[in-house]
Write a structure and sequence with these properties.
The complex is a heterotetramer, with 2 copies of chain A (144 residues) and 2 copies of chain B (122 residues).
Chain A lengths: L10 E5 L3 H16 L4 H22 L2 E9 L6 E9 L7 H4 L14 H8 L2 E7 L3 E9 L4
Antiparallel strand pairs in A: 1-2, 2-3, 3-5, 4-5
Helix pairs in contact in A: 1-2, 2-4
Chain B lengths: L4 E3 L2 E5 L6 H17 L4 E5 L8 H16 L3 E5 L3 H10 L7 E3 L2 H12 L7
Parallel strand pairs in B: 2-3, 3-4, 4-5
Antiparallel strand pairs in B: 1-2
Helix pairs in contact in B: 1-2
Classes of the chains: A alpha+beta (144), B alpha/beta (122).
The complex binds adenosine-5'-diphosphate (2 copies).
């Protein structure tokens, strides 16, 4: 698995108890609001963070939500990159996990990861049995 | 969360701004026990203050509506913010068994139409 | 200098531009408010973070504000530990820097570090020429 | 920040909730240029919304008052929150050359006493 260095991020929120899900999404909401994202993109990003933080809490027990500003390729537009990073058990069947409706838990639509993928502009996931899971997503800042 | 309005078999539940996982569970319990102990045919869940509805919150609200229906009660969700509705739609979240209303008045009208509750009070 | 591992903290905010001073104090304010600190302790802690973050920005250019919950020795009371950490030039004369009125900049009362020391319950500082500065402060949560 | 009240040589400056370093610098410039261009003898800085006043903000406010005084203008700070006042006191921050008032009315009374401004309007 790739190496994630928390020092390279503007914000890091540790997830270790249920309440940290709300804390992570509030902190991220504040940051992207200040970065000038539109209300509906702020909502999408906060919702994505809520899903990713809950997965960390539920399936890995502990991990981090990281955020950093990101220069887009065109050089002038900025965006945000968000990483959900844990050293938990990893995802058994990655293909299935990305499919709508797949879940290993009760009380769930199984729309977390596929939902996050649809909400964000880019999505990548890496997972290794016994080593953990890294989800990296990003979103460009749009004017409207 | 507290119940602010109650008349003629109808109960309104305003949901607080930040819904964490245990709060949404407590909300479900409170709604279902209220339906059981009082005679309520219509529940209005007011989410006009809520900023984020993710898949777990959706699931619990959906499940609540389903269980309420089994107990003879209809559920209407009102005041959902456009940005929240947009996000849910993009994720593919659909709250089955829940009616949607723009605001409280609209929610009451919907319930009146479905089950005739609230009419006595109106 | 001691080693600081950001992974051990609940929250990390990177300081790299002026605006990050405000972001750091807002994030910390949110956290300690949620932890149940009184309004006046929230204000003291936020003000201390404002001073420490500004010192990072001004004198080191870049660094981190870290926060974690802390079990007090009595086992039941909790508190908060905050670390200001940079790999900047270090403080030339540590004794002077802790004295009221000492400053190497214009436009300053030189009450930053001594002020922080008075606002918090514990205060420790470590600085090495060319290696950076670590300020560790903590505050117990009080009922009133 | 915007000037909301102005009468008879007196100007009130409500300060926004979150004072960052460049905002407090802009505030100083705006106050000083206003004193210069209009004939103002009393400035009221309303900090009732401000949550944090640290040493740099204190320094700039203090300096502003000192420069205003050189231009013949008195400065009153009003509405400081008790928790902010407590924090400043504990840090050892004193805003020299600034008068303190509980609220706007009190601030106007203080300025009337010192320089007699505002009287015409009262
Ligand atoms: N961080 C993670 N660590 C281990 N397994 C995970 C992680 N995130 C997701 N999974 C697995 O992927 C499945 C699908 O995830 P998701 O689409 O978010 O739906 P849900 O969490 O609602 O089940 C989960 O049921 C779980 O088995
Ligand atoms: N993180 C730091 N790195 C290098 N030097 C520092 C740092 N923090 C403080 N200093 C030095 O210590 C002095 C005193 O700091 P402080 O009491 O906060 O007052 P002020 O920042 O207002 O000058 C500063 O003027 C600066 O020279």
């Amino acid at each position: 698995m790739r190496d994630i260095n928390i020092e390279n991020y503007d914000l890091s929120v540790k997830i270790k108890e249920e309440n940290d899900i709300v804390i992570a999404r509030q902190m991220v909401k504040n940051m992207v609001r200040k970065m000038g994202f539109t209300l509906s993109d702020v909502t999408k990003i906060s919702t994505a963070v809520s899903e990713l933080a809950r997965n960390i809490y539920r399936y890995a027990g502990e991990g981090y939500i990281l955020l950093r500003g990101k220069q887009e390729k065109d050089g002038k537009n900025v965006g945000v990159e968000i990483v959900a990073y844990d050293r938990g058990p990893g995802i058994e069947d990655l293909d299935s996990a990305l499919r709508d409706g797949y879940t290993t838990t009760r009380n769930s639509f199984g729309l977390g990861l596929p939902g996050v993928r649809r909400l964000m502009d880019s999505f990548s996931i890496e997972s290794e049995r016994g080593s953990g899971t890294i989800v990296i997503v990003s979103k460009k800042r749009r004017a409207f | 969360m507290k119940y602010c309005e109650r008349n003629s078999g109808l109960s309104t539940v305003p949901v607080q701004i930040e819904l964490d996982d245990s709060t949404v569970g407590a909300l479900q319990n409170q709604i279902l026990s209220e339906i059981q102990s009082e005679s309520i045919d219509g529940i209005i869940i007011d989410v006009s203050m809520v900023d984020v509805i993710d898949s777990y919150i959706s699931y619990v609200l959906s499940e609540t509506a389903r269980m309420a229906r089994l107990m003879g009660c209809h559920t209407v969700m009102c005041g959902i913010k456009p940005s929240v509705a947009l996000t849910m739609a993009q994720m593919g979240l659909r709250l089955t068994g829940i009616h949607y209303a723009q605001d409280l008045d609209h929610a009451i009208k919907i319930l009146e139409r479905i089950v005739g509750v609230g009419k006595q009070g109106a």
